[in-house]
Amino acid sequence: MIPRLAAILGSKTKAQEMLLLLQGVKGVVRQGFYNTELPRVDRFCRENGIHGVRSTFKVLLSEGELYSNKGFRVPLEDPRQGMYFIYFSNDEQKAYLASYYELMSNHRELGLLLGYPPCCVDFFCRNFSERNTNLGLLSTNPLTNLSKRDQDCVLLSHFPCSSECPESMRLARTYLDVIQKADRGRAEEMIKILQC
Fold first, then answer.
1. CA separation for the pair 196, 87 (Å, rounded)
2. Environment class of 74 (CB within 10 Å of its CB; exposed 0-12, middle 13-18, buried 19+)
3. What is the pLDDT of residues 45-86, one digit of tens each?
4. Quick one: which of 169, 162, 159 has its CA closest to 121?
5. DSSP for the chain?
6. Which domain holds residue 170?
């Protein structure tokens, strides 16, 4: 299932997030897509009864990289190639609310709506800034390991407040269980990569 979703959404991580939404484990998911990807994503949402709300701005990634924590907003009319955030949910109101919180830079409410643990939301709100965009901590715990994001291998979509955060580990175990049931090969691949 993960390869099929990845072909539509562009990465295994995005496929996992969508799987978690489809299975009812997550209530809202936020992902970034370029203009060329949007028709596939829109069709997938229509076919699966998912509400996808597009951001009212584009994000240009800093450092000219394909993967970055740092980006800046530009108006939709800006001619540069930017990424649109899409807020997915089975509940249209929640999708719009996530878009609104992002627009207003209300990181606290957005994080909570995305299902992140309150302790991790607080950690993010206290520490994230334009100068400090990578809050990924050195982790010896495969469940909270974010160091393989650039290899399209991660269980969590948030920055845990510690590598042993109990709530983050609980969520990661739940997510891994769902992934294992849907795609055993992907789950085994992830465990192997995240233990390194």
1. 32
2. middle
3. 999 999 999 999 999 986 654 555 567 899 999 999 999 999
4. 159
5. -HHHHHHHHSSHHHHHHHHHHHTTS-SEEEEEEEGGGHHHHHHHHHHHT-EEEE-SSEEEEGGG-SS-S-EEEE-TT--S--EEEEEEESSHHHHHHHHHHHHTT-HHHHHHHTT--HHHHHHHHHH--SS----PPP-S-TTT--TTGGGT--S-SS--SSTT-HHHHHHHHHHHHHHHHH-HHHHHHHHHHHT-
6. 2-194
pTM for this one? 0.91
Q: Which residues contact 151 (CB under 8 A, 6 or more apart)?
A: 193
Q: How far is residue 14's CA from residue 88's CA, in Å, rounded to a whole number?
A: 11
Taking each helix axis as running N to C, give the angle between helix 166-182 and helix 184-194, from 0 to 180 degrees, rounded to the nearest 10: 140
Cα 153 to Cα 106, 146, 165: the distances in Å are 27, 8, 19
β-bridge partners, 85:
32
Does the pLDDT of residue 17 top 70, yes or no? yes
Please give the tally of structural domains in the chain: 1
Q: How far apart are the first and last CA of the chain?
A: 25
**What span, in angstroms and rounded, lies between the C-alpha atoms of 190 and 187?**
5
Task: Read off the amino acid at residue 110.
Answer: L
What amino acid occupies position 60?
Answer: L
